[in-house]
Amino acid sequence: MSTTDRRPALGKQLKRSFFARSVHEIAPELIGATLLVDGVGGPIIEVEAYHHTEPAAHSYRGPTPRNMVMFGPPGYLYVYRSYGIHWCMNFVCEAEGSAAAVLIRAVEPIRGLAVMRRRRGLHDERALCSGPGKVCEALAVSIKYNGCALDTSPIAIHARTEVPEIASGVRIGITKAAELPWRYGAKGSRFLSKPFPKD
């Protein structure tokens, strides 16, 4: 670990039961929670909610080999490849069969900063985890983590100790159900993948 890592106090580790609620409750509550994979990561800065009832969700047309984890119990990691290039990670929420999930879009890189810089091949900490594919590369998350429990090593999610001011808006890069304001982020954070529109 880098000796220059900023290490604010961690809240209690979240259990799978935390995710057995509405995806719309969980998504904003994850802003400020700390995501660690093998001890590397930081506070979650930006997320998007997805639900099987809307066409932007991978689960909209029912279960497939790719999205089967979404239809399972809450509190597990769903990992998929985006555009055949980047891995993206999602936290499965709601009751089994609901097929709802929260996409992790951005993380503030705090713990294991040197490791993340090496994995991403760049120094600028603002750019290390400012996008879902960047998060997975910095935290070394790939398809091998698909189906992993969110409260079991090497994954740990710690509750936030302070509640940040949260912004919301439409999700990024989708054309279906594009009007839904299901993107949440830490207002004004320089680690967002894309700024929220000014109020």
Describe this structure in words.
It is globular, with a radius of gyration of 15 Å. The protein contains three helices and eight strands, in the order αβββββααβββ. Helix 2 (113-120) crosses helix 3 (132-139). Strands 1, 2, 3, 4, 5, 6, 7 and 8 form an eight-stranded antiparallel β-sheet that branches. It has 199 residues and is of the alpha+beta class. A hairpin with a 2-residue loop joins strand 1 (34-37) and strand 2. It has one domain (12-186): 3-methyladenine DNA Glycosylase, Chain A, CATH 3.10.300.10. The mean pLDDT is 93. The N and C termini lie far apart (39 Å).
Short description:
The chain is 12% helix and 25% strand. It has a single domain, classed as Methylpurine-DNA glycosylase (MPG) (3-methyladenine DNA Glycosylase, Chain A).
Characteristics of this structure?
single chain, 199 residues, alpha+beta, 3-methyladenine DNA Glycosylase, Chain A, 8-stranded antiparallel β-sheet, 3 helices
Fraction of residues in H or I helices: 10-25%
By CATH, the architecture is named Roll
Biggest beta-sheet profile: 8 strands, antiparallel
Principal-axis shape: globular
What's the domain count? 1
Helices, by number, come to 3
Protein name: Putative 3-methyladenine DNA glycosylase
Pfam families: Pur_DNA_glyco (PF02245)
EC number: 3.2.2.-
GO molecular function, one term: DNA binding
